[in-house]
Amino acid sequence: RMAEEEGTGELPFSLRPFKIEDADDVMAWKGDPRVAAFCRWDAYTSRDEAVAFIQDFAIPHEWCRAICVAGRPVGCISVTIGKDHARCRGLLKYELAHSCWGKGVATSAVRLAVPAVFREFPGLERVEATVVPENKPSIRVLEKCGFLREGILRRYVVGKGRLLDLVMFSVLSEEIQP
Fold first, then answer.
1. Residues paired with residue 163 on neighbouring β-strands, in sequence order
2. The whole model's pTM is what?
3. Rounded distance, CA 12 to CA 142, Å?
4. Which of 34, 38, 60, 175 is 20 to 30 A away from residue 91, measured at CA?
């Protein structure tokens, strides 16, 4: 497990593993419908959901970090490593409190996380991310971080009751500065 890593950006931030004590901070962004709008999950309505997220997803996950500003979690970034024949790739996901949008925090977090994941998982050759085409800010984050737009996955998933297209982005290990 990676220790806390410091990043740069408009706001001082760091990435660190989640703790159960983060539940109130997690609830602050996961309870916001603006944050949930482009996510698979609906906005949380109880602190118990935040505790379950930390306990059942974040802590046991192979690579999941809290994005912290001034030491407090304001978001989450994770990379899920593929299994068996897909072990050469990881799926990047991130979410960020509305109060931090447009301040360089997500871009800085991705720039810090991706090289760390390539270092920690030597067999990893590719990190990919999928984004709904309407989520222009997230698309800009990936482009600024050197991800290549590979194409549209048409009617790829069902999200909140409707079929969604996804834009596929990727970056290869040799394309990332350590």
1. 158
2. 0.91
3. 20
4. 34
Q: What is the Cα–Cα distance from 47 to 91, expressed in whole angstroms?
A: 27
Of 67, 76, 114, give the one whose Cα is nearest residue 95.
76
Distance CA 132, CA 164 (A): 7
pLDDT digits (tens, 9 = 90+) for 82-105: 999 999 999 999 999 999 999 999
Q: How far apart are CA 1 and CA 116, in angstroms?
A: 11
Task: Say how many C-beta atoms besides its own lie within 10 A of residue 121's C-beta.
Answer: 18
Q: Are 62 and 124 in contact (CB under 8 A)?
A: no
Structure-block tokens of residue 10 = 């408009």
Is residue 123 within 8 Å of 173, Cβ to Cβ?
no
* Contact predicate 116/2, CB 8 Å: yes
| Spatial CA neighbour of 65 closest among 75, 56, 55, 53 | 75
All structural domains of the chain: 13-175 (3.40.630.30)
